[in-house]
Amino acid sequence: MGVAIVLGLFAVLIANSWLSGTEQKNALSGTTRVAVASAPLAYGTDITADKVRFVDYPNSAIPPGAFTNAAQLVPAGRKRVALMPIGINEPILASKISGQGQGASIAALLPPGMRAAAVRINDVSGVAGFVQPNDSVDVLVTRTVPGAQQSTQLTDVLIQNVRVIAIDQQSRNADGSPKVAKTATLEVTPLDAQKLALAQEIGSLSLVLRKPGEANNPVVETISMNDLRFNVYGGARYPAPAVVGGFGNPIGAAVGGAMAVRSNQVAAATRSGSTARSSRPASKPADTSRKVEVYRGTKNEEVEVGRYGN
């Protein structure tokens, strides 16, 4: 009996010692109540008291921009909204919500140094409505280049890997279903915003949906009418500049790219087509060549190419 009492007292002393040490450790480190989301908050969701709860965070682990009281987070009569998705039990930070009394502004979503530029789209240029906010796209420009005898159409890669901020006036698609829109708002650099404005005036733009995280193509090409006629590439290849960080890799020479015709490939394609179509004895071939006036910047030259179908 005496042994049991002694052992019991010893256990109580050990427990008190451990609890005392834990309390001293907590007193030294300290904790602070931090606001977290009690439910998932989508973009544009109002921050209200019923969607917030407070949990204890060690003082050394409080994230920058955290809110420590309800009056600070949701002031009376001044609403705040989520500017990006916030998961359940995730700390609500000042960088993820709007200012007091402000709504969900597109401008608040832009990283430093970036711009929001809108482009006109339709059911075709907008990839049949499958382009959604936060997708990555390439932007193509198709324009007509005048020539001495006849004009020709060219298609260039204007910008690679730009983020779609919004489709029409919607910055998120709740159900994810395809929706044909009239405008797409893109996150671009100031220089790319200028390119988009000019390209819309001189030609038509098309969006090309790309796989998330896919690397940019280091070499882009200008496609001309000859590429459709001869099935031989007859455009100009030019290197794409290095990525300027994040989305938005500008293609420096896209709008001013020139068409360089590969006459030897075109002539070879023409000769092979003629052999396959005719087994008649060879006769003096007719003149199947013609000249195309090619512009490179402000200079032009004539390039001789084969005539299609001869």
Automatic annotation (TrEMBL):
InterPro entries with a match to the protein in the record: Pilus_assmbl_Flp-typ_CpaB, RcpC_dom, SAF
Biased composition annotated in UniProt, kind: Low complexity: 269-283
Biased segments, Basic and acidic residues type: 287-310
Domain SAF: 32-98
Domain of life of the organism encoding this protein: Bacteria
Annotated segments matching region Disordered: 269-310
Designated name of the protein: Flp pilus assembly protein CpaB
Species in which this protein is naturally found: Sphingomonas lutea
Species lineage: Bacteria, Pseudomonadati, Pseudomonadota, Alphaproteobacteria, Sphingomonadales
This protein's encoding gene: cpaB
